[in-house]
Amino acid sequence: MARLEVVFLGSGGSIPTENRNHPAVAIRYQGWNLLFDAGEDVQRQFERARLGNNKHMVIFISHMHADHILGLPGLLLRFSLLGRIRPLQIFGPKELIEYVRINQDTIHLGTTFETTVYAIEAGPIIEIDDIKVSAFEVNHRGYALGYEILYQRPRGHFIPQLASELGVPKGPLWKDLALGKSVKLDDGRTIRPEEVTDTPPPPIKIVYTGDTRPCETLRQVSQNATLLISEAMYCTSHAELAEERGHMTAAQAAELARDAGVKYLALTHYSPRYGNGLEILKEAQHIFKNSILAHDLMRLEIDKEGVVKRSNTSNMSACDNIA
Ligand SMILES: [Zn+2]
Ligand SMILES: [Zn+2]
To answer: Which ligand is nearest to the CA of 142?
Structure first.
């Protein structure tokens, strides 16, 4: 069963094309939508991806470049017109507060729901059930953040046989142990939940780079990540442009993924000059086999063991490489 689902709403960088929108990635988790960046037309991608308008939701913005935030006012407008009532939290660089306020004042973007914008810096940002989201600073033009999304199941599964063997009577005490509470038996013994549960699987880690050059913070955060969602704006043939404009080549993203022990690399935010991105994918796969090319509305499921697989087949292209 999927623990997390990643939905690529926009896989383009700089200029949207016929098939690829500005950057936006949604992570679905237990009725929540966590949205990373809100490129132009994200509201229609929300509709196409059937993500819902009144879900619990948090938005994380990586940096204040237009291609990452042009869609935010539209999304807020959409939610209001459709009668959203749940509050919405938005996190990002400090200029984001002014950006949302000016939109609210100048284009009458009053929302039907409570909207709170938080100026953040690197560090822990929010915890949602068993998920922790943290921000880290990256190396782009101006202040820019990437995000780490960490899912850790807090305890293993309850194993009834172990409880029976330890003499715990079936009933409320089993329930308490399954919920992670220690229990005291009539004979005075205390049984801890670790004694009757299996070992929890390792955490699932997703890293979203935003826009960046390869950098040390990204290398560190990406260590052993389950899925690295990385910008890959250029191929090596345009390496000097990547350096000048603060982006990565596909090869650089792949090297970083390989060296950090990442399980899967999803390449996104690639330049319109590469069309369907086949060149980007080939360059990355040459270095790191588990490279996936994102396209708009592509969905990836991550199960509790950290296995990544596709959860839809729309727009499958010849360059798709995972089963
Ligand atoms: Zn960008
Ligand atoms: Zn940028």
So the answer is: 2
